[in-house]
Write a structure and sequence with these properties.
The protein has about 350 residues and is α/β, with parallel strands linked by helices. It has one domain: TIM Barrel, CATH 3.20.20.70. It has 18 helices and ten strands.
Length: about 350
């Protein structure tokens, strides 16, 4: 894909921990009990200093914390890790995606000072006082508002990402007014791709649960077409052209998003993967054996988890393990069954981009 010295973007999942229980997140079973395959791994400041040398940090354009499973604000050392990156690269862009429901006001003020004008926090807040918690289960509105305002008032640059569901689409304009009043630089209506299914029938509702397994909120797709992900309409065209989404995935060319931006993903276990989507196939909670996923074939070829551990071997050595080349080499296979990595076809197939359509 590219060389170690070409890397310009790091996507860091600093922790698998989160105080929320979002029903479409892989860290729990529909908002209920925790994913049995994860162990709440977290990277410390010392871990990150081992993985990312000062010389490597200096070559970067961007580092952002997000990931698949945890929220950076729950991690013990996320602020200190941002300080470390800023110390060795004053010009790079720093960013974080968060539900905003943890840490105290001083922590948020300190974060604003570390970021300065070369960074932003993307606040994932999907509703207002009476609706945000219906998807962001266990997140308290008073903390969200307090922390957002503390960060912004301290000079921090903020973006508000608002996923539209059936239960909150009536509040979009009111939320936009809040954003303007608080000093949010950008209010982004986000059109969820998580109602997509490769099957012909559409997914209209996702049932949320609590820790006891009891049903809580039915998370419904928004009713207004302007709030729906337009890639879901594209799906019908592809099924007509190719016969099914599986046949499209078998034949589509791959236009890798992270290869274009020269990006890598580091998991909370300290593992190197090309992106959060490939890493996101590692621990699906609904499998009896998580290793049934294709991605494990490539991890095994690179020496299993030990072979791709930047925490154990250092980033440069792991980058040369062959994991990226193995994944890229699969794209030439004639079908997913014959070895083409399915997650790459789903996320970076040249004719279908539900991820990008979230922001259109």
């Amino acid at each position: 894909m590219y060389r170690y010295e070409d890397i310009r973007v790091v996507h860091l999942e600093i922790t698998q921990k989160c105080q929320a229980a979002c029903p479409m997140c892989d860290r729990n079973e529909n908002g209920g009990v925790d994913n049995k395959w994860i162990d709440n791994s977290e990277l410390s400041l010392e871990d990150c200093q081992r993985i990312f040398t000062p010389m490597f940090v200096a070559q970067l354009d961007t580092m952002y914390m997000c990931g698949n499973l945890g929220d950076p604000i729950v991690a013990r050392d996320s602020l200190e890790v941002f300080r470390y990156f800023r110390k060795y690269n004053s010009r790079m862009w720093l960013s974080m995606n968060t539900n905003a429901g943890a840490k105290d006001e001083q922590w948020w003020r300190d974060l604003a000072q570390v970021f300065g004008r070369m960074g932003t926090v993307i606040f994932s807040v999907d509703g207002l006082r009476d609706t945000n918690h219906l998807y962001r289960q266990n997140v308290q509105w008073d903390k969200v508002e307090r922390n957002m305002r503390a960060f912004i008032d301290a000079g921090g640059r903020a973006r508000w990402d608002y996923i539209v569901f059936g239960h909150n689409e009536h509040q979009v304009e009111q939320a936009r007014e809040f954003a303007d009043a608080w000093g949010v630089e950008r209010f982004q209506v986000k059109k969820s791709a998580r109602f997509f299914t490769a099957k012909s029938e559409s997914k209209e509702v996702h049932q949320a649960r609590n820790r006891k397994g009891e049903q809580t909120q039915a998370i419904a797709k928004p009713t207004k077409i302007e709030n729906q992900n337009l890639a879901l309409l594209k799906q019908k065209e592809l099924e007509k052209t190719y016969g099914s989404m599986r046949e499209y995935y078998d034949s589509c060319s791959i236009k890798c998003k992270v290869a274009e931006e020269r990006s890598i993903f580091i998991t909370a276990e300290g593992l190197l993967m090309p992106c959060c989507w490939t890493a996101g196939r590692m621990y699906k909670w609904w499998h009896k054996d998580y290793r049934v996923e294709q991605i494990w074939d490539h991890i095994d070829r690179a020496g299993n988890k030990t072979g791709i551990s930047a925490l154990e071997h250092g980033l440069q050595q792991v980058f040369d393990s062959g994991i990226l080349e193995s994944i890229q080499g699969s794209w030439g296979a004639s079908s997913i069954e014959s070895g083409k990595l399915g997650v790459c076809a789903m996320k970076c197939g040249s004719e279908f981009d539900p991820f990008g359509a979230q922001f259109q």
